[in-house]
Amino acid sequence: MSAFSFLRKPLRTSQLGLTAFSALSSMSLWYWFYITSYWLESWLDGTEPPYPFLKAAVTVSLFIGFRLLHTRLRTRAGLKLNRLFYAKFLFQLSEKRWALIRSKPQAAWQDILFRHLPAIEQYILEFEVQKMLIGLMPVFVLVIITPISWLAALILFITLPLIPMFMWLVGVGAAKMHNRHIRVLNHLGQFFADRIAGQSTVRLFNKQQAQLERFELSSIELNKRLADVVRVAFLSSSVLDFFSTVSMALLAVFIGFSLLGEINIGFWQHGPSLGSGLFILLIAPAFFAELKQLGRLYHVKAEAVAGAESWQQVLTAEPVVRENTPTETFTNLQICRASVQGLVSSTDRQLLSIAELKINDGDRILLSGESGSGKTVLLDVLAGLRELSAESIELNGQPVADLTLIRNRILYLGQSPALMAGSVAENIGLGQFNDDDVIDAIEKVGLSEWLSTQPQGIHTRLGDFPPLSGGQKQRFALTRLVLFDLPIVLLDEPLAHISEDEQASVLDLMLNLTEAKTSVWISHKQIAADQFNRHWRVSANGEVTCS
Amino acid sequence: MSQNVTLNRAISLILAICQLGSGIILLALSAWFIAACAVAGHAGVLAGFNYIIPAAVIRFLAIVRIFSSYFEKYAGHLSLLADLKDIRYRLLSSNFSASNYVDAEQTARVLQEDSERFSGRWSGIHNPFISAAAGIAGVSLVFVMLIPAVIGYWLVLLSVLAALAGLFAVVNLKAEHNLDEQYRVYYQAQHQWLSVSSLWHLREDWLNGEQVAKAADNVFKARQRQLLLISITETTMIALGFIWPLWLASSVMTMTEPSALWAIPLVLSVSVRDWFGPVLNSTEQRAKMQRSAEKIAEFSRPASFSLPKPVNEAALSVVLDNFRWQRGENTGQPASFQIHGSGSYLLTAPSGFGKSSLFDALSGELDYSGSAEVSGLPLQQLSQAERCAYLFYGEQFSHIFSDTLAQNLIMAADNTPDSEQLYNALIWAGLPGWANETTLRGWLGPEGKPVSGGEKKRIMLARAYLSDKPVWLLDEPFEGLDEKTAELLASRLNEMAKTKLLLIASHLTPKNLRITNTIRLND
């Protein structure tokens, strides 16, 4: 899984350590089997031998010791893996910000810590370790058994190629069966969640009973098809079951008959004894145990792969920020012959192509184009959140590699103003301005009257006052423009959720506050063209023309 | 609960017991067999030892085990699927019955997961536990009959294991709750942080996500602690299995006659993971399942649905008097107006008034105070079902169901329209390219064809056409449409306004929209 290479490399030693500890803890018990089997033999002979307590105690202690070491390593490695993953996650987010957040549905952000990361952790620290153990342990078992009984070893050895072969056959059959049903399974599988999500529509059409009946029918159909798939899929674990159970039974019968003298081959010259026979019987399950454990972990692979597919591109995307010195003042920007690719991979189609783009300090630019044409992407680029491959970029007359130098000097005003739980003062000043400044800003955006109706003034908490109108929310957002000295303002449909009554005054406020700044506007609503001194158009295929 | 489910459950339980039982017996019998053969071989008393039968029984048990293992999985899964269907049916029914004011999308996700987890309670919790108990009981019985001297020691071992399991159950439950709490804290922090991303660069600690990272770290640590707990418990269980024989060897076995039967307790003891492991596993699953069980109980109320009588002649009127919508603690502003006769009535109000909520309350999705009449009938005398016999409500974001296009349209009609009528509706709504059998059978929704905003509005229009109700409530029908589509929509509404009462809440008005009257909801 190349998806995980950034996680696997630092955890390689942990994986090896886990394999070693697991193997050692199992094998320390083999010695217990050995001494107890031979002791039982002497005991049955009537010689009343003392039990070798010291040796047994040592093996059990070794077992406990190795298990504890394994656990400690596992939890430490798990923590390390989680932290590595999360650090990358945070890095990408703090780099690409709302451009990244927008690109994924809300549910994905919830899934990441709850489902995907644990699955990936289990995959790397348990599944892959288990794969190593499948190679090791059967070999060790054979190495130990062969000097005692070559026939017993042979019985086990024969299953080695047969098990994977049959499991592969079953796997092919199961995949075929699954593919036959996959479309229907995907469709019908959504039914429940979909109808819960759309319940109000069902109610409004009075179709509750009808939909319940439809659910019943589709569930029956879904279950029938799932049963088909599962009937074949379960055979794979049965294959393993079959070979392990049959081998054990064969071994028991073979050893028993050898001890009776009915069978005379398979034990070299020294012949069979209860000690050696019982020992073989006790060790043999270890031959199959690791494979069985892998079977139990198999679902982890599917979940981890799903998680990787969702997040791999995001996490391994190239960093946008290459230099770290932010500019203080902005005078002008010029971009020549540039293109913008998709957010995460250069194999994505080209979203924008720019012939020549100029911005001077104080410009007010109207950005228009059909919906979906990439106007938002262009804003993201100007905000320094996306990669821009350009022939030349000049900032303040100096050539630069990318636009990330100005990314902390912008204010972005979108359709949904950023508001959080907390007091009015916190929302506006973000903890960096005193009360007076906050009140001053509130006045400048025309919210003084509203503020006077709030019981605790600027310390009223969001959620304690009635919901703000669209216009009021946008005024809130504009206070930050007043307080923080940011030279560049990017506005993405700022009037979208504001009623017609309020639009005029909010627009006026925006025009006033951006008078001395550089601003780029996307707006469906009519704003007088003479307010703007530049007009950029984005065509349907992403060509940006500037005038 | 359908009979099928109970029967399937019983079958898979029996098979589970069979599987575990045959495994244990196979192991014990094999060990005894070898020991007995050794004894007989040494003593040279072959004639007295019937070794054919145990050998045959061993092979027979192997087959029993293999088959019961497969069929247990299969029957168990069938039972789980049938159970899941029943659980989800109840949940759907309960959710359909009344508006819960909850976030429907979130509820959908939660219930989808929880119902899945809950349906696995028999195969994941009860079956392993019961079969382990049955196995232990069986072994105890065998001991009582064959090796009575070991019983005392056996009971001591069982008690220690039971105490271990009990302790684990208690500590694990607490760890599970702690983990839940950490997740909750994290999600709140993450949600907050993501919602203010445009402001991160204005605060140092926001830019590096300090708070979120800390919350995430707490989640990680809580999870690892849980892992630690499980591992220690397992290690203790296995270690006990290897220490108990030492006790036997030093006490009772020094005092009794050597017999091949004593191989049995030794072998069973070291395989403690096979017959006691399921008890620990089911305890672990039980803790995880608790949450799901609670969620499901919360959303399970029996409900029945009846269709209202069809409406023949309906007066065209909407009258509101001091009508205020209510959502929990929030109340809307009072609205009062009177509309009589057909036509398009534009409803305007300052943003924040809650026009959508007003419509929600009229159509029955929200509570209200004050009074209202639709088609001359007082709202309080009409159930939601009866109300919707008069109303078509075109929501701002109409839900496109995960189903065929045909089903999405049929949803809106009282009777079942045939293909011809569906074609007419699609053509009328401005989707002529969709009026064919193939597209009708095409799948929409999350796993289906993506639908643009304009197409969604036109589907809503087609639904309105098929529903043919006298009063239409339309919430922002023109939002997000390009000029051409908006004009088409407006001309269609003009058509309908001749015979219906259209109440349109919109802050956009296409030029060709004929408005009979504008109602301003100000204060």
UniProtKB/TrEMBL annotation, chain A:
<dbReference type="InterPro" id="IPR039421">
    <property type="entry name" value="Type_1_exporter"/>
</dbReference>
<keyword id="KW-0472">Membrane</keyword>
<dbReference type="GO" id="GO:0005524">
    <property type="term" value="F:ATP binding"/>
</dbReference>
<dbReference type="InterPro" id="IPR036640">
    <property type="entry name" value="ABC1_TM_sf"/>
</dbReference>
<dbReference type="InterPro" id="IPR011527">
    <property type="entry name" value="ABC1_TM_dom"/>
</dbReference>
<dbReference type="Pfam" id="PF00664">
    <property type="entry name" value="ABC_membrane"/>
</dbReference>
<feature type="domain" description="ABC transmembrane type-1">
    <location>
        <begin position="136"/>
        <end position="303"/>
    </location>
</feature>
<dbReference type="GO" id="GO:0140359">
    <property type="term" value="F:ABC-type transporter activity"/>
</dbReference>
<dbReference type="InterPro" id="IPR025662">
    <property type="entry name" value="Sigma_54_int_dom_ATP-bd_1"/>
</dbReference>
<dbReference type="GO" id="GO:0016887">
    <property type="term" value="F:ATP hydrolysis activity"/>
</dbReference>
<keyword id="KW-0812">Transmembrane</keyword>
<keyword id="KW-0067">ATP-binding</keyword>
<feature type="transmembrane region" description="Helical">
    <location>
        <begin position="16"/>
        <end position="33"/>
    </location>
</feature>
<feature type="transmembrane region" description="Helical">
    <location>
        <begin position="53"/>
        <end position="70"/>
    </location>
</feature>
<dbReference type="InterPro" id="IPR003439">
    <property type="entry name" value="ABC_transporter-like_ATP-bd"/>
</dbReference>
<dbReference type="Pfam" id="PF00005">
    <property type="entry name" value="ABC_tran"/>
</dbReference>
<dbReference type="InterPro" id="IPR003593">
    <property type="entry name" value="AAA+_ATPase"/>
</dbReference>
<keyword id="KW-0547">Nucleotide-binding</keyword>
<dbReference type="InterPro" id="IPR027417">
    <property type="entry name" value="P-loop_NTPase"/>
</dbReference>
<keyword id="KW-1133">Transmembrane helix</keyword>
<dbReference type="GO" id="GO:0005886">
    <property type="term" value="C:plasma membrane"/>
</dbReference>
<feature type="domain" description="ABC transporter">
    <location>
        <begin position="333"/>
        <end position="547"/>
    </location>
</feature>
From TrEMBL, chain B:
<protein>
    <submittedName>
        <fullName>ATP-binding cassette subfamily C protein CydC</fullName>
    </submittedName>
</protein>
<dbReference type="InterPro" id="IPR027417">
    <property type="entry name" value="P-loop_NTPase"/>
</dbReference>
<feature type="transmembrane region" description="Helical">
    <location>
        <begin position="12"/>
        <end position="45"/>
    </location>
</feature>
<dbReference type="GO" id="GO:0034040">
    <property type="term" value="F:ATPase-coupled lipid transmembrane transporter activity"/>
</dbReference>
<feature type="transmembrane region" description="Helical">
    <location>
        <begin position="129"/>
        <end position="147"/>
    </location>
</feature>
<feature type="transmembrane region" description="Helical">
    <location>
        <begin position="51"/>
        <end position="71"/>
    </location>
</feature>
<dbReference type="InterPro" id="IPR003593">
    <property type="entry name" value="AAA+_ATPase"/>
</dbReference>
<feature type="transmembrane region" description="Helical">
    <location>
        <begin position="227"/>
        <end position="247"/>
    </location>
</feature>
<keyword id="KW-0547">Nucleotide-binding</keyword>
<dbReference type="InterPro" id="IPR003439">
    <property type="entry name" value="ABC_transporter-like_ATP-bd"/>
</dbReference>
<keyword id="KW-1133">Transmembrane helix</keyword>
<keyword id="KW-0067">ATP-binding</keyword>
<feature type="transmembrane region" description="Helical">
    <location>
        <begin position="153"/>
        <end position="173"/>
    </location>
</feature>
<feature type="domain" description="ABC transporter">
    <location>
        <begin position="311"/>
        <end position="521"/>
    </location>
</feature>
<dbReference type="InterPro" id="IPR017871">
    <property type="entry name" value="ABC_transporter-like_CS"/>
</dbReference>
<keyword id="KW-0472">Membrane</keyword>
<dbReference type="Pfam" id="PF00005">
    <property type="entry name" value="ABC_tran"/>
</dbReference>
<dbReference type="GO" id="GO:0016887">
    <property type="term" value="F:ATP hydrolysis activity"/>
</dbReference>
<dbReference type="InterPro" id="IPR039421">
    <property type="entry name" value="Type_1_exporter"/>
</dbReference>
<keyword id="KW-0812">Transmembrane</keyword>
<dbReference type="GO" id="GO:0005524">
    <property type="term" value="F:ATP binding"/>
</dbReference>
